[in-house]
Amino acid sequence: MSMRTFLLLLFLPFMLHAQVDIEKKAIDQMTNACEKLKGASFILATTERIKDGSLEKGEMLVKLQHVPLRMYLHIYNPNAGVEILFRKDDWGDNVYVNPNGFPYMNVKLDMNSPKVRKNSHHAVGDIGFDYLMTMIRHYRSGFGDKIYNYLTITDTVTFEKHSCMKMEFDYPEFGYSDYVVKENESIVDIAKKKFVHEYMIVSANKDVDDIHDVDAGQTIRIPNMYARKIIFYVDLQSHLPLVQEIYDEKGFFEKYEYKSFVLNPTFTPEEFTSEYKDYGF
Q1: Mind listing the pLDDT tens digit for each residue in 144-156?
Q2: Domain total in the chain
Q3: Does residue 123 contact residue 114 with C-beta atoms inside 8 Å?
Q4: Phi and psi at residue 265, in whole multiples of 5°?
Q5: Does 8 reside within a domain?
Q6: Which of 17, 164, 271, 272 has the smallest CB count inside 10 Å?
């Protein structure tokens, strides 16, 4: 055995332990930053692969207040001019919508209704960082330190003048298993219970057209992990994941970019009401 090989074998455990410490610190900083977030305003650019395999792009202005959870959305594309208000403390899972067209009246709808969620991977209430952080906390708890075997810090990149750490979670054991739908159970219910991606369930089942299209007793395929691969661009100052890129076994699945990001702006209470002077409700 050469001296070089001997030294490599001697120090390899220490090198691996140091790498795990770096990745653990990065995840800790990201989850802590998301949990401490009071609010934000940003332009959310979305790219989502829908059931037929095509990509749908969207863009919207978002005002987000974390506690209590409230949001205002102004859609730029598609359906330009649509406005949505979400007040979790007052309306539960309902949203108030200005459709900016037919039926020419404001309506209150369940955020998971087909009219609100058509082809959308996520509900309005999932906008922000809480949804993904819930998944990360769950898998960290289940995997323990083994989770860092799937995590790699690959590069430093720039996103909209933000210096970001590019972090990649890669799970080669990604796959699907059969699941029998219970009575009164929706795909949203199943995804929350199993901590997996609800639209990935839709995508994986030929006989499932959308998140509402399942019946009790039906056997469907569900993923064993939230995604096959996740790429984060984590801002080195705020430690928030300003870009999230998700892959399944087929390849690219979705991407979310938080542009023109303003951390913890001051909102007036009126900005989360339909009476606010700058809105069209």
Answers
A1: 989 999 999 988 9
A2: 1
A3: no
A4: -70, 165
A5: no
A6: 17
Radius of gyration from C-alpha coordinates of the chain = 21
Confirm if 40 and 69 have CB atoms less than 8 A apart.
no
Integer Cα distance of 50 and 207 in angstroms: 15
Assigned domain for 211 exists = no
Q: Does 10 reside within a domain? A: no
Q: 236 lies in which domain range? A: 37-174+225-272
Give the CATH number of the domain where residue 259 resides: 2.50.20
Stretch 51-71: mean pLDDT: 96
pLDDT of residue 103 exceeding 90: no
Q: What is the pLDDT of residues 13-60, one digit of tens each?
A: 444 444 568 889 999 999 999 999 999 999 999 999 999 999 999 999
For residues 125 and 225, the answer to whether their CB atoms sit within 8 Å is: no
What distance in Å separates the CA atoms of residue 128 and residue 1, rounded to the nearest whole number?
Answer: 53
12: confidence class by pLDDT, cuts 50, 70, 90:
very low
Does a structural domain hold residue 121? yes
Helices and strands of the chain, counted as H and E runs: 6, 13
The H or E element spanning position 168 is strand 162-170
Q: How sure is the predictor about 215, in pLDDT bands with cuts at 50, 70 and 90?
A: very high
Q: Which long-range contacts (CB under 8 A, 24 or more apart) does 107-116 make?
A: 111/86, 112/186, 112/188, 112/211, 112/212, 114/210, 114/212, 116/84
CB atoms within 10 A of CB 249: 14
SS3 content of the chain, % helix, strand, coil (to 5): 30, 35, 35
Q: pLDDT at position 8, please?
A: 44
- Distance, in Å, from the CA atom of 178 to the CA atom of 220, rounded to the nearest integer, reads 6
